[in-house]
Specification:
With 93 residues, the chain is an alpha+beta fold. It has helices spanning 31-41, 69-72, 76-85; strands at 2-9, 15-26, 60-64. Strands 1-2-3 form a three-stranded antiparallel β-sheet. The radius of gyration is 17 Å and the shape is elongated.
């Protein structure tokens, strides 16, 4: 389980805090394949040295989350909701 924390302070000083959870199931892979992933991606700046982007997707069997962007970094779906509470309106597509 990955946790991505998010906090927004509105113009009125109101605070919103959330913990966006992402459940991930990793594949069972041979050591050689894991070594190749580490050599090619060099994901050492990521939590658990695992990325969902690029070759990192090959490590995963499943991902469950209300906001899958949280696994990449900033949970954009949740952030959009929090900004709406603060009165920020995004343009319609």
């Amino acid at each position: 389980m990955f946790h991505t924390a998010l906090a927004v302070i509105g113009p009125d000083g109101g605070q919103q805090v959330d913990d966006v959870r992402t459940a991930v199931r990793f594949r069972r892979l041979p050591v050689g394949q894991l070594d190749a992933y580490l050599r090619l991606e060099q994901p050492y700046d990521c939590a658990g040295a695992a990325k969902i982007e690029s070759l990192g997707i090959t490590l995963l069997e499943s991902v469950r989350s209300d906001d899958p962007t949280a696994l990449i970094g900033l949970p954009l779906i949740r952030l959009t909701s929090m900004l709406a509470v603060c009165g920020v309106r995004l343009p319609a597509p």
